[in-house]
Amino acid sequence: MNLTLERYGVWLRSTVVCLGSALGVVSADVAEIPLAMSLLVPAVLACGVRLYALRHPLPFALLWTLDAAVLVLTGLSQPVLGGDGADVMVEAIVGISVITFQHEWATRPVAGAALAALGAVVCVLGDVLSSPGHSPELVPLVRMLIEAGLSRAAYLIVRARARAADRSAAARAASRREAEVAAARRATEREYLATLHDTASATLLMVSQGDGRDWSWLPLRARQDLEALSAMPGFETESVDLAELLGCVPEGEGQARVQLKTHIDGPLAIPSGPGLAIFNGVREAVTNVARHAGVREAELRAWAEEDGAVVELSDAGRGFDPQSVPARRRGISGSIIGRMHAVGGSASVTSCPGTGTLVQWRWHGRARASQAADGAQVTDGVPRPPRAQAQHTAVVRLIRGQLLYGAQLAALLISLVAQFAISLRQLTAYQGVYHPAWAQTAAFVCLAAVAATGAAYLLRGRQVPPRVRWWSLGAVLTVSATGAFTLPPERLTGAEDWAFGLVGWHALFLLADLRVRVFAAFLGAHIGLNAAAVFLSGAPTAAESAAMGISTVSICGFQLSVGVLLTRLLHGTAPAAGTAAAQEEELRTRERIHEDMQRDHKERYRALTATTVPLLVGLGHGVLSPHDEEVRLRCGVEATRMRRLFAEGDAVSDPLLNELRACVEVAEHQGMTVSLAVRGQSGEVPVEVRRELIDPVAVILGRTRSTARVTVVWTPRAVRVSVVSEDCAGGRGTGEGAHAHGRAADAKVTVARTTRGGSVWVEAGWRRPAASGVELA
Q1: Does domain 641-772 sit in CATH 3.30.360.10?
Q2: At what angle do helices 629-647 and 655-669 cross, to 10 degrees?
Q3: Is 304 helix (H, G, I), strand (E, B) or coil?
Q4: Transmembrane segments in this chain: where (predicted)?
Q5: Which tens digit of pLDDT belongs to each residue from 577-607?
Q6: pLDDT digits over 419-473, tens only?
Q7: Domain ranges for the chain
Q8: In sequence order, what DSSP letters do the residues of 618-632 get, joined into one string?
Q9: 235-380 has which CATH code?
Q10: Helix, strand, coil in percent for the chain, rounding step 5
């Protein structure tokens, strides 16, 4: 906004100086023209240098000196040119200059005020030199200072609205940024959990299921899992050949090997985000065939379709009912379906008991683009929201509305101050000049009513209704006609004409939200009415025409330039500001997403460092043997912990019970018999506390081989989770705590453990702090 105002001020002042100087020279005596040119030409050149400085910055002192030189040279030309035309010319140039200085030097108000004071001194000096022995006229001087003050006040009003727009846009951007960061973190979390499910969790679960296998594949698999856990989860945007990826789908080793019959119509070039999602989903589906289908063969097909690709994996195994699979099982919902939804694709699983299973993945560019309008895109590996265009439009609309409101308030302020501080004095001082005087008074009252009506709407933050606007505009034109035809033609645009320079400001705040051509048409009609009044009474002299021309240019030209400036602010500066704000916000959002993803990844990896990572390292390098019972027990504990982690993000009414059931399912999958009992009415428990309450249960269930009993007891102020194992394997594992899994220092979870023979009883309890003021239901 400041840059726009500076350019506007320099261009307007330079235009007025050039036109005013030309009209002043035309109206001067021939003998005075050379001396006048020696003063006015340097002033015009100084304006040219000032225009040059808009694109090539010059020192502050030089710019201020150039502006001051324009004032001094123009003021000294007044006694040289002589006559009323020179007075009007100098008054117009200096008046416009001190007004525009408040915009040119908007960020340096002291410099603008100093130039305004210099302009007042120049006017006084010009009057003294042109009329020796006569005191300078104070009325034009006071009017000029009032106009300079109004210019500064208008700038402050518009700046306040611009800052309000900045604050509102920043607040909205911050809200969007938080939502986008949260969405990106959720998407990354889903991918992380899916990766964890397909790698470390599956490996540790297989190790925990017992001996008697060919474990030659395990070291390489453990090292690959460790590499996957240490990598930053996320999607890429480069193109890949899906056919080549599918050719790398692992078939497994030994008894778990599945022979794939592939029919792939390649190449299939798609973005690597969807490509990796399909690859990982197929890998998980092949693993499910080995585990559950009861067959060792499957068919993998892939082909292009429109602008996307379709992949199918089918087997002739025992089949199952997809609806009966609990949501806590992540093989289908997370690794297959969830992954594809995250990249804008789709996946489906079709199966019935005894008829085999068909898994299908679909991805289409158009479908992805459509879904992306409601989801999240990814750039340079960082998910980001795609609704940039809609957000940019909203920001531009916000900025434009605030700038428009500020401009209307500024125009209304100028109208009221000019009418009651300047025009009212003119009206009362020259009552005898008007014919009839009552018409001029009625016109003044009419303008006051228009201003009051506009103020009633604007001060309440509302736009003037169209019907009220056009009636008010008709009233303003009527005032223009009244002022033109009830004043002697030779007095038009002079000191007696209070309405000529006033009606334009009233029209401006009424038409500010429309295109500038509407305001220009009004000014044309206004000037036409006054010109008609002049020519109907006879042709004016050259001097009178020059004086009227200078007044018209300085008054109506200035008002039109303000309308052009407003259009520039609303349709040029506002979109540019919106674009800059959107780009800055996008950069901040991406930086924030990247930082949070890095931090989340470090926290996740740190949580696994104490227990999961050592197991994978030992298995990957042969330090730990899957034939060792203690190693298998530790793997069972970690697999149970991971399953609880997978259930942590489920949207359920009782998260604690949901996570416990996930742990129980892993134990039952190992062949255990587990009973789960719940007493009391459940309540809300923070996620950090849930982790500590369930971790001892996960440890015991992971080390139990036959039967266990889990009990949850709710009371109004506390919750207790206990587990009893009849044959829990001993060793250091039964005493493992939850410190490695994110224990909060202030969680206040107490853990009690009792061992009797082969039985182990562990209870974890948590009491809600009394200071919270909220009790469990």
Answers
A1: no
A2: 150
A3: strand
A4: 10-27, 33-53, 403-422, 437-458, 470-489, 519-539, 545-566
A5: 888 877 787 777 777 777 777 676 666 656 6
A6: 998 889 889 988 888 889 899 999 999 999 999 999 999 888 888 899 999 999 9
A7: 1-136, 235-380, 641-772
A8: HHHTTSS-TT-HHHH
A9: 3.30.565.10
A10: 65, 10, 25
